């Protein structure tokens, strides 16, 4: 095994949406999983064998055994395998969006797109725990809006009502995985010194033209976050965010809502449902 790589048997793996970021092909699907370490490579403490972990990888998690960097096999203490699998990339991503990039704090007015998704539901909870004054979400339809409200949103509007339903409002922070026209409209809703964090391109690669002069005049910022890149360039930073986020899950401050479980043989159908927008919260696949 490569140096510092533990080998873990998986009990459950998670499903992830296509964020329109390039993925080298061919590749084995699956970017996050939960299980126990069964073997370690050179340089890894042998005492980690048997440790329950939440694993973050760049692919290959839809398998019974996964090879992962030691730093990104995060000890999953105080949570069950189902929760640890659902934790995945979405929870540390939401943690970093709120705490590291947007730096949401007491009294901030926050707008979260994709409010009913895995990142959106976690981001709302982290923002609430950080003391945000008002948290508004945008979700795909009425069903998804109703679902999202349980996670700390003060208001959730549907995608087809955005941005008209928010006329006259402004926000200190916007979390946007959509892009395109949604990003343009969201920038217009930023308050002076507001921050918009782009972390996906679900709408496709439509160009968003921004005047630096306009941003400068109002003190607004357009920021980005790429969790996959962070995991490859600064894995220790990602792991630290994952540990902090997992501690908040373990103590009940926030919760990972696993809404669907699938057998490994049904993963194709599960991914199709996710792509069609039928999944609320987080879906996982049982491996064992």
Automatic annotation (TrEMBL):
InterPro entries the UniProt entry points to: ADH-like_C, ADH-like_N, ER, GroES-like_sf, NAD(P)-bd_dom_sf
Pfam families: ADH_N, ADH_zinc_N
Domain Enoyl reductase (ER): 8-285
Keyword Oxidoreductase found: yes
An example molecular function term from Gene Ontology annotations: oxidoreductase activity, acting on NAD(P)H
Coiled-coil ranges (or none): none
Domain of life according to the entry: Bacteria
Source organism of this protein record: Kitasatospora setae (strain ATCC 33774 / DSM 43861 / JCM 3304 / KCC A-0304 / NBRC 14216 / KM-6054)
Designated name of the protein: Putative oxidoreductase
Keyword set, alphabetical order: NADP, Oxidoreductase
């Amino acid at each position: 095994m490569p140096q510092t790589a533990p080998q873990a048997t998986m009990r459950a793996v998670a499903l992830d949406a296509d964020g329109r970021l390039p993925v080298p092909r061919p590749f084995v699907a699956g970017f996050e999983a939960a299980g126990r370490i069964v073997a370690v490579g050179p340089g890894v403490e042998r005492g980690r064998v048997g440790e329950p972990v939440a694993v973050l990888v760049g692919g290959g998690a839809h398998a019974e055994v996964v090879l992962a960097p030691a730093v990104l096999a995060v000890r999953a203490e105080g949570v069950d395998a189902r929760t640890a699998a659902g934790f995945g990339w979405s929870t540390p991503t939401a943690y970093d969006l709120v705490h590291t990039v947007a730096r949401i704090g007491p009294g901030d007015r926050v707008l979260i797109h994709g409010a009913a998704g895995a990142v959106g539901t976690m981001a709302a909870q982290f923002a609430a725990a950080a003391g945000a004054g008002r948290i508004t979400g945008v979700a795909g339809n009425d069903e998804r809006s109703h679902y999202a409200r349980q996670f700390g949103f003060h208001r959730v509007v549907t995608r087809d009502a955005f941005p008209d339903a928010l006329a006259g409002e402004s926000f200190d922070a916007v979390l946007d995985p959509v892009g395109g026209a949604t990003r343009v409209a969201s920038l217009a809703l930023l308050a002076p010194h507001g921050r918009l964090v782009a972390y996906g391109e679900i709408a496709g690669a439509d160009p968003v033209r921004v005047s630096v002069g306009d941003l400068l005049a109002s003190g607004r910022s357009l920021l980005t976050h790429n969790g996959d890149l962070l995991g490859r360039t600064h894995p220790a930073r990602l792991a630290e965010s994952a540990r902090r986020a997992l501690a908040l899950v373990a103590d009940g401050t926030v919760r990972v809502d696993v809404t669907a479980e699938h057998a490994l043989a049904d993963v194709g159908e599960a991914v199709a449902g996710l792509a069609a927008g039928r999944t609320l919260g987080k879906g996982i696949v049982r491996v064992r």
